[in-house]
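Postdoc handover notes: sequence design on the structure in folder B. Input tokens:
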């Protein structure tokens, strides 16, 4: 059987059927119904965040989080990272804002706070950092810069579900954090996403934006879209949340075995985990230094593929090399380009056996 980069965690079919049975009785399928509300409450408690608004996917959640902070109206520049999934940057540009690419740190691939201030101009309105692979950004340094310059901070926390920093849910940092609940994530609602935030006034703005701008029964306050999480997906979330500790524990076993086999190998660089972080083991990213290791990232990728094992080059190429963004925005991000050219994310999911991890490592090291 093929080994893909990931395989979604799912509850037993019977458990899901049980959870959706009330929807068949009530015929209430979407528009923030009782299952949505129950799931929202459970998520707020699990993620230890003050408030949450749930969306049809992580991308729409991020797009609307930017809009709800008034940044679309204001216009201007947003400092972000070129080492991310393209969704982060699309969310910025689809709001009419200009992404300004800041380079990343070579050890954990998150935005380098030491390089942010030089990019701030009178047009800068926000910073959108990414907790890439579940590696936590330097949240304190970023907040200090944002406070000094009066900027909003929205974290793309698509990869960071359930992570804590110093015992605090990661969704508490910045003005808002977007979590993705896509099938390929540690936690899924099939498709889905959520915004965690503190400011209660923000809740009604997000609500309007994801529900056509409707307010009450007789008026439409703003030009919103439609990005609501439906009851069936919320039910999947309730089921998966019941098992999340087990999913994360299984992923930890896989990561521990990869670490045993790959750490200390000359020419292989693994992600360094920041101290005081409770991780979620979202991705296993390996940097291959061809000169020292003897094989390039692309050769390892092909050798694995020849054995029906499909790792992924997340995130290659860097965003400012993609056709839709190339040459449009200033770019001085050599570390991001270097990492994008050398990184491979290895298969990692709850059901991946340690025998398969060994087989993957044997091919890599062979
Ligand atoms: N910000 C960041 C930093 C993100 O990484 C993402 C999403 C977002 C924002 C936006 O969040 P969402 O709007 O997606 O909630 C995948 C995912 O579609 C995407 O969610 C994810 N990041 C990105 C990193 O990866 P692809 O194009 O690589 O997906 P795909 O279809 O190739 O699937 C990956 C592997 O998973 C395949 O080998 C097959 C396996 N798979 C996939 C699906 C959908 C399954 O086994 N079952 C499945 O149902 O983008």
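Designed sequence:
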């Amino acid at each position: 059987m093929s080994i893909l980069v990931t395989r979604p965690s799912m509850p037993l079919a019977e458990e899901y059927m049980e959870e959706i049975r009330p929807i068949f009785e009530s015929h209430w399928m979407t528009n923030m119904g009782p299952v949505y509300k129950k799931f929202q409450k459970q998520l707020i408690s699990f993620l230890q965040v003050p408030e949450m608004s749930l969306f049809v996917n992580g991308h729409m959640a991020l797009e609307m989080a930017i809009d709800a902070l008034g940044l679309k109206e204001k216009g201007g520049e947003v400092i972000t990272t070129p080492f991310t999934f393209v969704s982060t940057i699309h969310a910025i540009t689809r709001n009419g804002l200009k992404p300004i690419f800041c380079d990343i740190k070579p050890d954990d691939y998150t935005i380098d706070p030491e390089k942010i201030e030089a990019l701030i101009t009178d047009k800068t309105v926000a910073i959108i950092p990414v907790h890439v692979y579940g590696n936590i950004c330097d949240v304190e340094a970023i907040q200090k810069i944002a406070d000094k310059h009066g900027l909003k901070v929205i974290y793309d926390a698509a990869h960071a579900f359930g992570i804590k920093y110093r015992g605090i849910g990661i969704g508490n940092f910045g003005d808002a954090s977007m979590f993705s609940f896509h099938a390929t994530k540690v936690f899924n609602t099939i498709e889905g996403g959520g915004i965690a935030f503190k400011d209660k006034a923000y809740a009604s703005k997000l609500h309007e934006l994801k529900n056509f701008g409707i307010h009450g029964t007789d008026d439409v306050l703003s030009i919103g879209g439609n990005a609501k999480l439906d009851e069936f997906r919320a039910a999947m979330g309730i089921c998966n949340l019941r098992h999340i500790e087990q999913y994360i524990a299984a992923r930890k076993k896989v990561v521990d075995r990869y670490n045993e086999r790959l750490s200390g190998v000359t020419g292989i660089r693994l992600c360094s985990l920041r101290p005081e972080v409770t991780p979620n083991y979202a991705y296993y990213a390996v940097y291959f230094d061809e000169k020292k290791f003897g094989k390039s990232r692309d050769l390892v990728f092909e050798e694995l593929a020849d054995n029906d094992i499909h790792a992924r080059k997340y995130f290659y190429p860097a965003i400012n090399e993609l056709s839709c963004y190339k040459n449009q925005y200033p770019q001085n991000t050599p570390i991001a380009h270097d990492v994008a050219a050398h990184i491979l994310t290895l298969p990692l999911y709850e059901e991946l056996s340690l025998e398969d991890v060994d087989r993957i490592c044997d091919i890599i090291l062979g």
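Context for whoever picks this up: The mean pLDDT is 97. Don't rerun without checking with the PI first.
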